[in-house]
Design brief:
Length: 246
């Protein structure tokens, strides 16, 4: 399985709500480094898909420093950016694309593997853990083939399909594909662990402080800690989640 994966992580410097968030300090590193470290088992499979608007130099320099593959592409057409990132590193039709965003510094490697296993073993076109959400926002994983990515790149017409990459599958043409929703037995979707605003950053910093700024704790450890420290969730409970328009 590992040799067949392209884990593409989108990252940019020009976030409107929290500019340069991928390079904010976390655990003595940057947020982007922490995301990569959380998936370190698959470091050789990772491609950072950044922008070509002239602001991307710090990301390029960081990727060179830590020896991670990086590709540049469109700022707003993120679907195009994903496609060209995969093409640049010689993806073929049957390669598996794993989509992750750099605003998820608590991404879980084991959960990613579960979503991938569901995709492979269930013979799905697309699997995600965000459709019928049971996991916190900020641990999102999407899995599909490069063949499907190429098809979306050619056929997606709406701006929101290009900006958000996968709505072409799970919204616009959901009846045309076999879609899998990965769900945990316990619903932990009330926790917000993504990085969009300053309050999110403060909450994530508190999470890592509880783990002594180490990055190798599990999803189970994370949820257990949050259940014992309800004050952390209150830090960013007022932040509204961005929605993908249907």
């Amino acid at each position: 399985m590992k040799n067949n994966l392209f884990i593409i992580i989108q990252a940019r410097m020009t976030s409107t709500r929290l500019p340069k968030k991928v390079l904010l300090p976390l655990c003595g590193k940057t947020v982007l480094e922490v995301v990569i470290e959380r998936l370190n088992k698959y470091k050789d499979n990772i491609i950072i898909a950044t922008t070509d608007d002239g602001s991307e130099t710090p990301i390029l320099e960081l990727c060179k420093k830590i020896d991670v593959k990086v590709s540049k592409g469109s700022v707003n057409n993120v679907l195009s950016r994903y496609y060209h990132s995969a093409k640049e590193f010689a993806a073929t039709k049957k390669n598996i694309i794993v989509r992750i965003t750099s605003d998820c510094p608590l991404i879980d490697c084991t959960m990613m593997e579960k979503v991938i296993d569901m995709y492979i073993n269930g013979d799905y076109d697309y699997v995600s853990n965000r459709i019928n959400r049971t996991v916190p926002v900020g641990l999102d994983v999407e899995v599909f083939s490069f063949e499907l990515l190429e098809y979306m790149y050619i056929n997606a017409k709406e701006d929101f399909e290009k900006e958000h990459v996968t709505p072409y599958i799970y919204l616009s043409h959901k009846d045309s594909y076999k879609i899998g929703s990965f769900e945990e037995n316990k619903d932990n979707s009330t926790y917000r662990l993504t990085l969009d605003e300053q309050k999110d950053y403060e909450a994530i910093q508190e999470v890592y402080k509880k783990f002594n700024n180490q990055t190798d704790f599990s999803y189970k450890d994370l949820i257990t800690m949050l259940e014992k420290n309800s004050s952390i969730s209150k830090i960013n409970e007022s932040v509204k989640q961005k929605q993908v328009k249907e």
